[in-house]
Every structure is written in C-alpha cells, then in structure tokens.
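Dear Dr. H.,

I hope your travels went smoothly. While you were away I took the liberty of generating a structure for the chain from your last submission, since the lab meeting agenda had it listed for discussion. I wanted you to have the full record in hand beforehand rather than looking at slides cold. The sequence, exactly as received, is reproduced here:
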Amino acid sequence: ADEWIAISRDRRERKSRLIAALTGLAAMNGYLGERAFELRPLLRNRDEAISGAAYGTLVAAHDPFVARKLAKTCAPSNKQGGDAGDPFHCLFVLSDFGGNASAAGEDVIPFLSSENALEQAYGIETLGLIGYREAIPQIEPFLTSSDWRLVYAAVRALGRLQAYESVPAIEKATLDHWLPGLRRFSEIAVLKIIRHQPYDGAGNNYSPRKDFGDYNEVFRDETCNWNAWTYNGRKITFERSPYQPEKEVHLADGKLVAID
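The corresponding predicted structure, in token form, is as follows:
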C-alpha cells in the first residue's frame, strides 16, 4: 500500500499510473484503514477521472469522510411494490461502513417514509448497521407492522443498536408472532445481542452483520416444521414432489403458495 499511496499523492505521476494506483488501493477494501485520509486531497482534483477514482477508493476503504456524500446518493425511489433496485445496492455499500457512517444516519431516515416496503426495510437495517441510535424511536413503530419483513428488519436493527429501551416493545410485538423464525430472531436479539446473555436455541450462530436484506433466512430454521400451516382453524399441508416444486392452496381471502 505504501508505494501505491506514494504514487497517488505524487503530482508528477502520469494520470494513468495514478488511477491504476488508486484502483489497486480500492481493491484492498477496508484494509487501507486510517491511511485513507492521505487520499482525501485528491477529491478536489480538477480532473474528474482522478477525483472520481479517489472517491471510489475512499468508499471501498469505508472512510467516514465520504460517508455522507455516498448516503446522499441513496435516495428512495418511493415506487410501490417490486424490489428496491438501485437503492438496495447503495444502502448495502453504505451499511458496510459500519460505525464509520454513523454521521450519515439522518440521510438514511427518508427511507423510513418510502412507499416501497423493501426500501423501508433496507433503510431500517442500514440505520442499525451504521449504529445510528438516534433512529430508535422511529424504528420501534415498525415492530407492529402487518408486513413481517418490516418487523424483522426492526428487530435486527434494534438488536444491533443495543436498544435496551426497546426490549419490552420487541417482546410484546413478537411473542405470539405467526412466523416462528421471526420469534426466534427476536429471542436472539433480546438475549444474545442486547442483554449479552447466552442463547442455546436454533440460530445461535447468528451474526448481526450478515445477510443484509436477505429475509429468506427467517425460514431457515431446521427445527421448524415447514409443512405445519393453519388458516382459520383449517390445517394445510403440501406433499413434497420433485415434479411439482410449486404448489398452491386457494383460500377464501387469497392463496397460499409453497415452493419446495
């Protein structure tokens, strides 16, 4: 890294060589550490190719100096339905900054008001991962959402934020939740992450920083009988079949789909 940093800071170097050095430093991701500050002056370079390469390197290094600039590019689309698209990628990169992006929390708050539920969920998770405790009062209401993804994101975020004050709200919202995996992660958040008490149940290897935006992990509980469904007192089961991986059961208010 020493040689590449020296090349990057040498104004006599050829442009191509300087950008190559910045590209190499970017490939080191967060391992550049505190030496990232030596590259900050390049952000003011009049050559957009050089300043752009410097910005990319500092983002890869998770330098707090560029966290807010990155966050300001993560605007919610507010498109109802569908996936979150580009905002997801932007928030994923920002969340990887961890506490280095805590100052950017206020720029993520608008995601909580998005009309797209996934954008709301990703915003909630990002606030937890960057350690923005100021958002705790705004995250708590999502615990009572009818969308289980928002409840799950809120539980994860509050756990990451060590929100002791939110424990009663977490327990009340998830104690009898219909989704077993969500109840399990709620226990983990309260016992293992917030209270630092031992937890011996399923999912004990849960890491509060893994699987950003992957809500399918809620269903990866090996102790849960995937085929035990009830609806209005009616027991619903699906037969496993390699020839029909997707099955449907039509109900009065819609349908239940199982994918094997």
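Two observations you may find useful: Strands lie at 229-231, 234-236, 246-251, 254-259. The CA atoms of residues 82 and 116 lie 8 Å apart.

With kind regards,
E. W.
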